[in-house]
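@channel sequence for tomorrow's demo:
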Amino acid sequence: MRVLIVEDAEDDVFLIVRQLKKDFPDLVWRHAETARGVREAFLREPGWKVVLCDYQMPSFTVDECLHLLQELAPDVPLIVVSGAVGEERAVDLMRMGATDIIVKDRMFRLGNAVRRAHEAVVERAEKVRVEHKFQQLYTETPVMLHSVDQDSRIAAVSNFWLQKLGYEREEVIGRKLVEFMTPASARQQESNALQDYFRSGGSNSTDCEMRKKDGGVLHVRLYAVADRDVAGNIVGSLTVLHDSTNEVAITEKLGESEERFRQAFRSAGSGMSLVRLDGSWIEANDRLVEMLGYDRPELQSRQWRDITHPEDLQHDQSIFLRMLSGEIDTEQWEKRYIRKDGSILPVMVSVGLVRNADGAASYFVAQVADLSAQKAAEAKFAQAQKMEAVGNLTGGIAHDFNNILGVILGNLQLLQRRVKGDHTLESLAEDAIDVTRRGAGLTRQLLAFSRHQQLEPQVVRPETLIDKILPVLQRTLGAHIKIETNIDTDLKLIKVDPVQLESAILNLCINSRDAMSEGGTLTISAARTTVEKQHVEVTKEAHEGEHIRIAVRDSGSGMSQEVAAKIFDPFFTTKEVGKGTGLGLSMVYGFAEQSGGHTTVYSEIGTGTIISIYLPCFDEEGVAVPALPSEVSATRAPRGTGTILLVEDEPQFRRITALQLEELGYQVIAAEDAQSALDSMDYHDDIDLLFTDMVMPGGIDGHQLADKIRALKPDLPILLTSGFPRAAFAEGRSYPLVQKPFTVFELACAVEAALAATVPALENTSG
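structure tokens (generated this afternoon):
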């Protein structure tokens, strides 16, 4: 960036340069204090992009600088830098040609102001260039063109138009178009075509007969497009006239063929792209743009390397080199793209090299197939195979072990009767029988995990079952554990083996107790929820439809993501040797699967853990409640408008939440951490809501981020989210919170409420 600084104070020059270098590391600058200095700078070193001028200088005024700049370089923008400028004076300066006014105590705006001023110049230059090219194309193209105003008078014609009809330009301009048509064509145009055009803003091809100056007739076909003013009103038209000869007919057929190819390319069901030899995009179709998450200009401003996973670059380059060398013409392989939101997109690409008529390499054409669903299905199948294999193994062991335990228990009970009266032997036998019973309990856990245990499902009310188990839990967990419940009042029925569900809840509670060795709070909740398609894609064992979610939350030590991924594996435990079999949570997993449901875990180290059992809903007769189409909840959900800044560090959850918000009608700006969110606030002034996760990396949590942004924009609505409810965080939090996981309906209602609430009202919503 080349900047000329007109300033008489060296300290201010230093401050301006230091501020500009923050935004433009490649800054080139010069300093001038007088009109002579400015003139010499432009004569000796042309190419200055922006001029920064102090408002008050003893020997050179900003008005003089503006007049001088109009003489030397009228296209270079001037930004006034001032300690203070009155409103009326500021308006005068802007009318005189100043691009912007920066107050010195708000110097942080300088970089953006310089960038905007330069971009405006570039945009104007491009507009002038395009207009010049258009005018050149209009007059010199070997095509018959004319423009008419709203009164159907000719405003402009191409040279080829004049040549084909034999007129001079001055004989045509200002006359009505129908004057150059045969009487029949003129009547048809006046009665139908022109009226239809100005009513609808366009026309289909129209056959017409034009009168040549020498008296001949030229058969043409007219194509018209609307000429609109800034308000969108039709003020005229631009018309192309095609000579109806065989040569033109062939050209039309070629154009139609190209358009068909373009339409097929754009609307193809798989991603397609054309890529130059240097790696830049020539074109990308709608499906590829959708897959990668960029809009078309954003994608075409990048190269394929920019969105390719770094680990795949070397392999990709080797294939392209083999194509360019002539070793191969086409190749197909799997690779990974990096989408705009940072998520990884697995794809299958089929690439071919297109050569010109001389055999020289011209460009690459690629077809891209999204493998996300396939990879998810493979992962789901692999997990199912793994759990099935372990289940079969543990089931077989459990059945054999049950037989062994049956023999041992039977013999011990016979022996116990034989030694009746001998207290020592009776005690020994009783101990052995008790241990055998414990072994039998272990086999029941194995059978529950392997799904070989015979369940006795019944239609039950979950709230009744939870109430029944609470007294047992209090005695089992101990006084150092505080038990809380959060049971919805509108729960539906579930169909389960009550004994096994009680056992599953007890296992979860005992597991939570062990994570709170110094005491804490354990919360059991039950609520209705709808498992939607997006949740099924993330949680591979889930099924769509209405469910009851029974969750056990603790305030214990929590787990890492690596540990949480293994907790349902049989025999996996983080406890010391002798303090756990590693089968309790496996039994819960197996019970949920065998009952048609699934389990999820959400945990953060130092905050606690939530383990949820999702069980499908049933009616009074034991008939399953049918799954709702995934779009139903979104249809019922309130829709809205506006821009939401979404802050979420987990890529899959960020992607799904952004998709849900967009489906509800909102624009979404996604950020992966607090710093990215703060940077986004600098570049976007149209944000209507901050929606942020509570627990994030980087040292700034969601509430701290909310406080920082609220300090910048006191009126901005804020909505928090977390896998842990508000009670899990410190008291005094003053922003509304929506609980993870949430349905589309719950999300829509929370966003609508946050946008509708006033800031003072939010200050009293802690709890």
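heads up for whoever presents: DSSP finds 25 helices and 27 strands in the chain.
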